[in-house]
Write a structure and sequence with these properties.
Blueprint lengths: L13 H35 L6 H24 L1 H7 L3 H18 L6 H5 L5 H7 L4 H26 L3 H82 L2 H25 L2 H6 L1 H16 L2 E8 L9 H19 L3 E9 L2 E8 L16 H12 L3 E6 L5 E8 L4
Parallel strand pairs: 1-2
Antiparallel strand pairs: 2-3, 3-5, 4-5
Helix pairs in contact: 1-2, 1-6, 1-8, 2-4, 4-7, 6-7, 6-8, 7-8, 8-9, 8-13, 11-12, 12-13
């Protein structure tokens, strides 16, 4: 299967394909524009450096070439994808025009400079071919160009009294330009493919972030409904009992319910806006997260911050805190772990956080789009945007080890 430009469908889906097609159209438009440069070059050469003989024939060829360029421009403009796919064939017409002019002016009129000037135009053909996003098509144009350039030079070298060394040297230059243009075409194609993959990833992440927001809202709703709201309802019932009977135990239950409700609400609010992060620092804020996640998931959590100064505040603290919340929430909800350890270190302007558990583990591709862990993928993108990296590896015997490294400046 191929794209409308004739190239194989690049991996990555419609987003990658759309980017490749658009860049192919731009390349063909550039090719059409550069052809007019070549038309002007041929016309000016015939006008200002005319051959001693066959001037009328050269003028006719130049005029026909201008009409040819006009026809190709109209065809590309109105021909749609088919014209974009086949526009490279017109480059062979450019090659024929230059070859005919070189042979006509070089063999029949050796005393003129016309053929020497015309042969310079051959060097523009590989540039036109490089506008293609198909290296093989580019090679299919530049190889005949170099061959025709050499053949035309051999055919005119006796009339021009050119030595073999001169011909071979300038042919080598032409071959070097041709090879460079093929390489440029390959580079451009790889860049377009990379841009397409980034566009696709961006689209996937935008969709996944919407799902993440909904998931966080659902999680917050569950925490409030299953936690604080239940205690409030129980407190209301105990209040009714206390009002009717004056039973001291009812007041004690009411006090416990209100105390637990306050704790749960403080925990929820802290997760949404961690004031402790600014006041007490990242290690203290992560310890709160670990304690809350351990209570939900039924595992033992330990936070070690020996390599993190107690009074240190960095620009990466909010990002690391959000990432720690996501990682610990995954341990609580999915890992079925008995223990989880968090290690924080700061060294040489880089912050490092390692979250390790002994649960069932997750795959190394979970942080990528489509990996099944939407929240983890979105955090990985944020970390990469900040110049850091997030890696996932299996634990020594079981579970998962997630390592986050990111540049951090003290504030």
């Amino acid at each position: 299967m191929s794209t409308p430009t004739g190239a194989p469908v690049p991996p990555g889906g419609p987003a990658v394909l759309a980017v490749a097609v658009e860049h192919a159209r731009r390349g063909v438009r550039l090719q059409v524009a550069l052809r007019w440069v070549l038309v002007a070059f041929v016309a000016l050469t015939v006008a200002f450096v005319p051959p001693a003989h066959d001037v009328v024939t050269c003028v006719v060829i130049a005029a026909c070439y201008g009409l040819f360029a006009l026809a190709i421009a109209v065809w590309v403009h109105s021909g749609g994808d088919r014209a974009v796919r086949l526009a490279w064939v017109a480059l062979l017409g450019d090659l024929v025009v230059l070859a005919v002019l070189t042979l006509l002016t070089g063999v029949s009129t050796p005393q003129s400079w016309t053929s020497d000037v015309v042969t310079t135009g051959f060097l523009l053909l590989p540039v036109l071919a490089a506008t293609q996003l198909r290296p093989r098509v580019c090679a299919a144009v530049v190889v005949p160009t170099v061959v025709v350039y050499l053949v035309a030079g051999i055919a005119t070298m006796e009339a021009n009294l050119e030595p073999w060394s001169s011909l071979l040297l300038r042919t080598a230059i032409a071959a070097g330009v041709a090879a460079g243009c093929v390489g440029l075409s390959r580079i451009q194609r790889s860049r377009v493919a990379q841009i397409g993959r980034l566009v696709q990833t961006r689209g996937e992440l935008l969709g996944e972030l919407g799902d993440l927001e909904q998931r966080e809202r659902s999680s917050l709703s569950e925490h409030l409904h299953d936690g604080a709201l239940q205690y409030v309802l129980a407190a209301r019932m105990d209040l009714d009992d206390a009002r009717d009977s004056g039973d001291p135990e009812a007041f004690e239950r009411l006090d416990r319910a209100l105390t637990e409700t306050s704790r749960l609400l403080r925990s929820t609010v802290a997760e949404l806006h961690p004031a402790v992060l600014a006041k007490a620092g990242l290690p203290a804020a992560v310890r709160e997260l670990a304690a809350a996640a351990a209570a939900r998931g039924g595992f033992a959590a330990d936070v070690r911050a020996d390599g993190w100064p107690a009074d240190l505040r960095t620009t990466a603290d909010p990002l690391l805190h959000r990432t720690a919340r996501e990682l610990l929430a995954n341990v609580a909800e999915h890992a079925r772990a008995r223990t989880a350890d968090v290690t924080l270190t700061f060294l040489g302007g880089r912050a490092r956080m390692v979250v390790a558990d002994d649960g069932v583990g997750i795959g190394p591709g979970a942080a990528g789009p489509g990996g099944g862990h939407i929240g983890l993928a979105s955090h990985a993108v944020r970390i990469e945007a900040a110049g850091g990296c997030l890696t996932i590896a299996p634990g020594a015997s079981s579970g998962t080890v997630v390592t986050v490294e990111v540049p951090a400046d003290p504030v």
